[in-house]
Write a structure and sequence with these properties.
The structure holds two protein chains of two kinds. Chain A contains twelve helices and no strands. By secondary structure, chain A is mostly helical. By secondary structure, chain B is mostly helical. In chain B, 74% of the residues lie in helices and 0% in strands. Classes of the chains: A mainly alpha, B mainly alpha. At the A-B interface, α1, α5, α6, α9 and α10 of A face α4, α5, α8 and α10 of B.
Chain lengths: 317, 300
């Protein structure tokens, strides 16, 4: 087990370096001068050269990457061009709000997904199964930004029950778990939850169906085990795979929240990424993507380790 | 016929046998999918949306670019504007139908491109193996370290707004996914006896890949690719929705959804229409892909 964990961690190192390289190169495939956002239009050649040297843009690319990586390892992702504040601080503050949203969405989506999946798997080929499956397919096919708009139209514009945008009193950095704030979380969380709901439903349904059709279930029933006991066996066998899928989905929610955060003006990392793109704030763009991708890599690592820990069948080969 | 030497007849039979069998498989798949009501309904909806998008200029619609200050945001069902008008007074019916042209193009083209590149890469990686396999598959792993929405937005955000850039970004997102599937099915087929037999009878690596392997893996890769179209449609429209894809005044569903967002307090249901189109195309492709998958799974 320990050897497996060690090997899995070692395997992550080249991935982390490559991810950093991709994030670094993103800025260099950008058309135009990276200084265009800070440089006044009538700046002299000398000023441009001075700034270029100050930001290190005049050195060869591999050197720039090395220096950037070294600074990044020390937690220095540079300063935002638009605000002048350190990128890492900006990103971490926004990530907190994204985590709040992702966890709320995960609670809704995973609970619904597991329930629907179990029911559909147990009642295969009945109308209950068909209903749950259509729900799941609708969940994975719906453009979630559009669903967000629909929910705003229904619950904010027509019924006036819930606020349409923002994160509540105090703005981006004053989140609290009270109703004054929570009511702002309801619609974005439901919107975020539909894709994981659909995917978890499909996974759990397939797993349940597979397990129920195996011989050992027949044997359990033959020896007179009650249906609740059989159910416990189903859950135990389905758990490792289902948990792995959920971990991956949590990662997608953290990294892919930009569209929903834009619809709801939710002050998270996606919203930050959006403003970085449109203000051409390249250090902020680079830093946000790097932090989100690293979150995803480490979440995957945790999922793999957790899966190996609970599933004795995983042979560490 | 009786003059035909026995060996020649055997040869003819040998050549004919696999051919009829292959036709038999696809004919069976075809029959099964035609019998599936859900798949056929989805195919019908998609054909209608495609045809209307292609034939848009000949359908006698209003000019999708011509606005009018005095007839902005008419409701659904207004005389002459069955789907109302948008925030600049342009006919929504015309814009929804014309919008299909760009939306379908930017949604489907990346998957087609990724299918071509990903299949080639995966086939080579799976067949050649060794160092080349390691190089290709480790590169693929790096792209798997990004959630696909984040990767698409990062690339098109860095490249800047534009249709071409968003197609490039989405193609880059899907190539690794298709490569992984293609590599794994190719590895599964590579060591089968018929490949060994082809090699023993002197076939070169390209002939083997093209004739013997491609035919056996293409079906699985194709089904996987069709399942990506739904995601691709949503992401492509999503990039336009963010302002990273199509530019105004082009009619495109994602962009229309974005510009109509300001109108949700005035005329919410007109504002929601473009999203319904994306949803319809996306769910139909998903269901069709599911139908195709189960039709190809002959064992059941």
């Amino acid at each position: 087990m320990l050897a497996y964990i060690a090997r899995r961690i070692v395997y992550v190192i080249p991935i982390v370096i490559s991810v950093a390289l991709v994030c670094f190169l993103l800025v260099h495939i950008t058309p135009g001068d990276p200084l265009v956002a800070v440089l006044p239009a009538d700046a002299s050649q000398e000023l441009a050269a001075q700034l270029r040297a100050a930001y290190g843009f005049d050195r060869p690319l591999p050197v720039q990457f090395g220096l950037w990586l070294l600074r990044a390892l020390h937690g220095d992702l540079g300063n935002s061009i638009a605000t002048g504040r350190p990128v890492l601080a900006e990103v971490m503050r926004a990530v907190g709000n994204t985590v709040t949203l992702a966890i709320a969405a995960a609670i809704i989506g995973f609970t619904m997904g597991v329930l629907l999946g179990l029911i559909a798997g147990y009642f295969r080929e009945t109308w209950i199964d068909k209903l749950a499956t259509s729900f799941a397919i609708a969940g994975v096919s719906v453009p979630h930004y559009w669903l967000g708009m629909l929910l705003v139209i229904i619950f904010s514009v027509q019924l006036n029950w819930l606020p349409a945008v923002g994160a509540g009193p105090g703005g981006s950095s004053a989140w609290a778990w009270d109703w004054a704030h929570l009511q702002y979380l309801v619609l974005p969380a439901i919107t975020t939850s539909v894709i994981p709901m659909g995917i978890v439903t499909r996974t759990v349904r397939a797993l349940t169906g597979d397990i129920l059709s195996q011989d050992f279930v027949e044997a359990l029933r033959a020896k007179g085990l009650r249906e609740t006991g059989v159910f416990r066996h189903v859950v135990k066998n389905a758990a490792p795979t289902a948990l792995a899928v959920m971990g991956l989905q949590l990662g997608y929610m953290l990294g892919g929240s930009i569209l929903i955060e834009t619809v709801f003006s939710w002050p998270g990392s996606g919203f930050l990424l959006n403003s970085a793109i449109f203000q051409r704030d390249l250090p902020l763009l680079q830093g946000t993507i790097l932090v989100l991708a690293l979150f995803f890599v480490f979440l995957n690592l945790l999922v793999d380790i957790a899966q190996a820990a609970i599933d004795p069948r995983i042979k560490r080969g | 016929m009786s003059e035909l030497p026995l060996s020649a007849m055997n040869e003819a039979a040998l050549q004919a046998a696999p051919a009829t069998k292959a036709r038999g498989y696809w004919a069976t798949v075809g029959r099964r999918i035609v019998r599936d009501k859900v798949s056929m309904a989805c195919a019908l909806v998609l054909i209608m949306i495609f045809l209307s998008a292609i034939l848009a200029p000949w359908l006698g619609l209003e000019d999708p670019y011509k606005g009018s200050m005095i007839r902005r945001l008419r409701h659904i069902g207004t005389a002459g504007y069955p789907f109302g008008t948008d925030e600049l007074g342009r006919d929504m019916l015309a814009r929804l139908i014309y919008g299909g042209r760009l939306s379908l193009l930017i949604g489907i083209l990346p998957v087609i491109l990724a299918f071509v590149f990903g299949t080639s890469l995966g086939l080579v990686a799976g067949y050649v193996g060794g160092k080349l396999n390691t190089a290709i598959m480790r590169t693929v792993d790096v792209f798997y370290a990004f959630p696909s929405v984040l990767l698409a937005i990062a690339i098109s955000g860095a490249l800047g707004a534009g249709i071409l850039n968003s197609i490039v970004a989405l193609t880059i997102v899907f190539v690794p996914q298709i490569t992984r599937v293609a590599e794994s099915v190719t590895t599964g087929v590579r060591n089968m006896d018929f490949v060994e037999a082809a090699r023993a009878s002197g076939a070169g690596p390209f002939t083997i890949m093209r004739v013997h392997i491609l035919g056996n893996v293409l079906g699985a890769i194709f089904v996987y690719a069709t399942s990506l179209i739904s995601v691709s449609m949503i992401l492509a429209a999503g990039l336009s929705f963010l302002g990273l894809g199509t530019k105004p005044p082009e009619p495109e569903w994602g962009l229309m959804l974005n510009t109509l967002r300001t109108a949700i307090y005035v005329n919410p249901w007109v504002a929601a229409l473009p999203g319904a189109m994306i949803f319809a195309v996306s769910i139909c492709f998903n269901l069709l892909s599911d139908g195709l998958r189960s039709a190809m799974d002959i064992r059941n």
